[in-house]
Amino acid sequence: MYRGRAEQWSEYTEKWQSYHEKQLEKAEKSGIINNTVDTVDGSAKALYDKLSRDERKEIISRGQAVDRPVFSYDTAENRAMSYLQNTPKIEGVYDVCSHGTPYSIEFFRQDYPDGDKRAYIDAYTLSAIIKGRKDYKEFISLCRTKGLDPCVRLLACETGRKSEGVKCFAELLAEQLGVSVQAPNKMLYVYPDGKYYVGKRKSGAMELFKERR
């Protein structure tokens, strides 16, 4: 009898592991946030400084005008941006979504020709966009009223990946905004219901970067 139960438990465990693996594969295939090309050196204004005055104004104005702080599109192969709109909201947390690298995030890349400087933005540019957004101003006001410490959750791949001697995107953003920023240190995988995990087989984590006092 005992052996039979042990065998049943073993069979159950194997089935659960198989199901779990299939779910992870499903998320990888349907909702993975793809990496983009690393184009900057880890400074807050590395890309901003390469833009003309008109290009800077265009990007910041567009980023402040969109309904939500989501700065990339779905594609036929990747619906991560839509999936992330289903991510459960947390009081005191402001979500920003895009595709990313440790030093930049995508900014409506499909709208620009290949190699266009406007297709990716740095931490300084994103901070300028966020600070001017009506929903962010309301968010900060509400946090102050409720006595909450505001935090920006940056749902963009590898933007929280630290390298020795070089500040990552999320760390630079925290300095520019003056609030804490949470971001993934590896690839971000998203399910259709908005739940997500960091790193293949959940090998990563959301890193928290504190603002400078």
Structure explained in plain terms:
The protein is 37% helix and 14% strand. By secondary structure, the protein is of the alpha/beta class. The chain has one domain. The strands form 3 sheets. It has a 4-stranded mixed beta sheet with strand order 1-4-5-8, covered by helices on one side. A two-stranded antiparallel ribbon has the order 2-3. Helix 2 (53-65) packs across helix 4 (123-131) and helix 4 runs parallel beside helix 6. The N and C termini lie far apart (64 Å). Mean pLDDT is 87; it is low at 32-37.
Indicate the structural class.
alpha/beta
Uncertain residue segments? 32-37
Helix content: 25-40%
Oligomer: single chain
Summarize the structure.
The chain contains six helices and eight strands; from the N terminus they run H-H-H-E-E-E-H-H-E-H-E-E-E-E.
What keyword list fits this structure?
alpha/beta; globular
